[in-house]
Write a sequence for this structure.
């Protein structure tokens, strides 16, 4: 992709890059290519599990370790960001984890402590991040906040389980905060992304089936992380300055489909339906 410089002069923070397959990693690479300067953040446990320091070198970023479910970590993060950049222009929230999903606990029999943790990490963390950003006056007028969702927020996908609830809450937080941020000229949107082979994505049982189904159903095929990075650039740029409170699909057209031709033949074979 050729550089357009859409984010030249903009500063921000990107949460959630764990390793090269992370969607936040791709967003960081696209934002860097377009001229943005930003800090990277992840939970302290990611030091051991991921390779964030490698990305930080590539994109010339400081790393600020913070657990996005902990108020004191986020407060410290925004103070540090302010020292580094003054006020910032964007926040990218690409954080998620389904604890019951990961531990293969079915939706009909959720462990409610894990469920609360799932909602805290995957949705309430967005609320918390914005709250601390506003209290520390970290965001400049014209700033853009972006989070990552999945169509399982709006429709039922059998294996997505508790994460469907978490994403529904996340998209609601986008609207509810969005209505309060407008008078400070700050906007917030969610990108609803295709199934993508990442650590969080592949933690979902049946992920391969969801991936394959998405790919066959979408006229353009599944959108990959790199395309999500490029779409994110537009939402962080001034070109989309009047767009807020939206869930926007980077999904190759999946959300507009009913039945795709590519699914008809295999379905007829599996169901042993005779051609008329
Ligand atoms: P990933 O596993 O690379 O990223 C998830 C990130 O959340 C990791 O970096 C992890 O360390 C971080 N995280 C977990 N707990 C945290 C905490 N307490 N504090 C701070 N960070 C924490 O996976 P991916 O797929 O890149 O996930 C990014 C976002 O994209 C998530 O919200 C996910 O639900 C969403 N998404 C993913 C899709 C997929 O198929 N992979 C599809 C649609 C949305």
């Amino acid at each position: 992709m050729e550089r357009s410089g859409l984010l030249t002069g903009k500063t921000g923070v990107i949460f959630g890059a764990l390793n090269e397959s992370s969607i936040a990693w791709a967003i960081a690479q696209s934002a860097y290519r377009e001229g943005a300067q930003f800090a990277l953040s992840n939970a302290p446990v990611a030091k051991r599990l991921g390779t964030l320091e490698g990305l930080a070198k590539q994109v010339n970023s400081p790393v600020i370790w913070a657990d996005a479910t902990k108020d004191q970590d986020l407060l410290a993060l925004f103070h540090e960001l302010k020292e580094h950049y003054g006020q910032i222009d964007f926040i990218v929230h690409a954080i998620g984890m389904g604890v019951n999903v990961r531990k293969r606990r079915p939706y009909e029999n959720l462990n409610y402590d894990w469920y609360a943790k799932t909602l805290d990490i995957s949705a309430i963390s967005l609320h918390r991040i914005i709250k601390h950003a506003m209290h520390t006056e970290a965001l400049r007028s014209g700033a853009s906040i972006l989070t990552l969702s999945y169509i399982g927020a709006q429709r039922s996908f059998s294996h997505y389980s508790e994460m469907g609830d978490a994403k529904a809450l996340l998209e609601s937080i986008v609207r509810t905060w969005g209505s309060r941020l407008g008078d400070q000229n700050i906007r917030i949107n969610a990108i609803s992304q295709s199934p993508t082979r990442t650590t969080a994505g592949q933690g979902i049982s049946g992920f391969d089936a969801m991936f394959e189904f998405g790919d066959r159903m979408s006229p353009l095929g599944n959108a990959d992380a790199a395309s999500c990075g490029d779409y994110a650039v537009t939402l962080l740029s001034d070109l989309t300055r009047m767009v807020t409170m939206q869930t926007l699909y980077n999904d190759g057209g999946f959300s507009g489909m009913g039945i795709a031709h590519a699914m008809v033949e295999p379905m007829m074979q599996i169901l042993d339906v005779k051609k008329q």
About this structure: The mean pLDDT is 96.
